[in-house]
Design brief:
Plasmid transfer protein, elongated, signal
Length: about 220
């Protein structure tokens, strides 16, 4: 009997000690559970934020591409008029260079989402300049008969304005492209545009060939 009482007392003491020893462990497990739950919530919130940012970047990149296509259309229209005012030889190389620089801007913006707002802002400016130049050319063609009656020096002033505007757009396009290139190169160590050179050259040739067809 005494032995049974002794074993019972020992067992209860052991259970009590075990429970006391595991109170900190229980607290730790509860804390770990709370921490893990918190991490899961943070992960879900971060995922939602990332999804929202990706959607915004996609929309902005679409706007960049839309304005790039608008520029292509504007320069195509310009090229049709260049021969009419006898500046095709000087203007066409500038247009080709502008298209190349614009394509670089699109590629670099795609490579780094942080550059998309810069690319978009610059494209807005380029579209505005191209629209102004197209309107100028349309107005010039409307009075081409009068222009042909002008002195050579006066006509040169009108045509030089077109070339100066193209040079300005080309210079600005190149500056933006080089700025974006430097940023991408600093992060990646490589130039993503190198993979697009052949494709881009084909694009430029297609645009210029289409302009020639329209002139016929």
């Amino acid at each position: 009997m005494k032995r049974l009482l002794f074993l019972s007392a020992f067992f209860l003491s052991a259970v009590s000690s075990y429970a006391q020893l595991n109170v900190p462990l229980m607290h730790q497990l509860i804390e770990n559970s709370k921490t893990e739950h918190g991490k899961q919530i943070d992960a879900k919130n971060q995922q939602a934020k990332n999804t929202a940012v990706e959607a915004t970047n996609k929309t902005l990149m679409t706007s960049v591409k839309d304005r790039y296509r608008t520029l292509q259309e504007r320069f195509a229209k310009m090229s049709i008029v260049f021969d009419a005012v006898n500046i095709g030889i000087s203007a066409t190389p500038l247009v080709r260079e502008i298209i190349k620089e614009q394509q670089k801007i699109v590629v670099y913006a795609q490579s780094d989402p942080l550059l998309i707002p810069i690319a978009l802002d610059s494209e807005v400016i380029f579209v505005q300049k191209a629209n102004s130049l197209v309107n100028y050319l349309i107005g010039l063609c409307a009075v081409i008969g009068d222009v042909n009656q002008m002195k050579v020096s006066d006509r040169r002033i009108l045509f030089e304005h077109i070339l100066n505007e193209l040079r300005n757009i080309s210079y600005l396009s190149g500056g933006v492209a080089r700025t974006l290139q430097a940023s991408v190169m600093k992060k990646r160590g490589t130039d993503p545009f190198s993979d697009y050179i052949n494709r881009e050259e084909t694009l430029v040739n297609d645009i210029m060939n289409n302009v020639k067809i329209l002139k016929q």
